[in-house]
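Tip: read the tokens left to right.
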């Protein structure tokens, strides 16, 4: 999956926006006052991060998606809801870091090859 880095929101921003949508975009006060307990009695994985504070482990998104899909890993992997804010993080990875790592690897490999040629 190719994700454009400049379009990918940070994990904190993603959760903030998701929580705002979750309260039907009514108000930020509603996000703050949210109790976090879902209909099935399980605490929402995002509740702790709803105010945009704290470092969000990307595994939090994976946990959320697994809950969304009834703990079926294949359904999370094959999720087609690409307009869901969580979608880029559903596999528990930060695509922007993955893309940057791939770019750095290619850049470093090219530099090493150049150095070998110049020897
Ligand atoms: S990306 Fe898919 S699995 Fe994850 S929360 Fe959204 S709809 Fe559910």
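Filled-in amino acids:
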């Amino acid at each position: 999956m190719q994700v454009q880095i400049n379009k990918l929101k940070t994990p904190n921003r993603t959760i903030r926006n998701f929580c705002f949508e979750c309260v039907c975009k009514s108000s930020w006060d509603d996000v703050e006052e949210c109790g976090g307990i879902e209909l099935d009695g399980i605490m929402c994985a995002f509740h702790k991060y709803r105010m945009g504070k704290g470092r969000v482990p990307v595994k939090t998104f994976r946990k959320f998606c697994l809950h969304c899909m009834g703990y079926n890993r294949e359904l999370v992997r094959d999720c087609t809801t690409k307009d869901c804010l969580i979608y880029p993080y559903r596999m528990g990875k930060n695509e922007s870091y993955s893309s940057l790592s791939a770019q750095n690897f290619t850049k470093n490999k090219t530099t090493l090859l150049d150095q070998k040629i110049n020897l």
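Residues 9-93 form one domain. The radius of gyration is 18 Å.
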